[in-house]
Amino acid sequence: PVQICDRLCERGIQSVIIEGGAKTLKSFIEAGLWDEARIFTGPKPLKSGIKSPPIHGKEVSRTQIGNDLLRILRND
What DSSP character marks residue 32? Predict the structure, then answer.
């Protein structure tokens, strides 16, 4: 993730949306290379599959959208 961010910075790119699998997201989270996370949670918990990586930050927004909850976290 650091090398990716370095290359993007060299090209003048300062904003990137990471939409990856759990392993990709975890690598950016663990490296501290995130400013904002948008987390959608549905009303029914999933019983199987790959768990999302843990992320901790300051919750700045919580919005109900239909049956889903959108939480916005910022990296401290």
Answer: T
Residues whose CB is less than 8 angstroms from the CB of residue 57 and which lie 6 or more positions away in sequence, other chains included: 37, 73, 74, 75, 76
The CATH H-level superfamily of 2-74 is Dihydrofolate Reductase, subunit A (3.40.430.10)
Distance (Å, whole) CA 24 – CA 69: 23
Q: Can you give the pLDDT at residue 28?
A: 96
pTM: 0.84
Q: Tens digits of per-residue pLDDT, 41-55?
A: 999 988 899 999 999
Residue 40: strand, helix, or coil: strand
User: Pick from 29, 7, 3: which is nearest to 18 by CA?
Assistant: 29
Q: What gap in Å lies between CA 48 and CA 34, rounded to an integer? A: 27
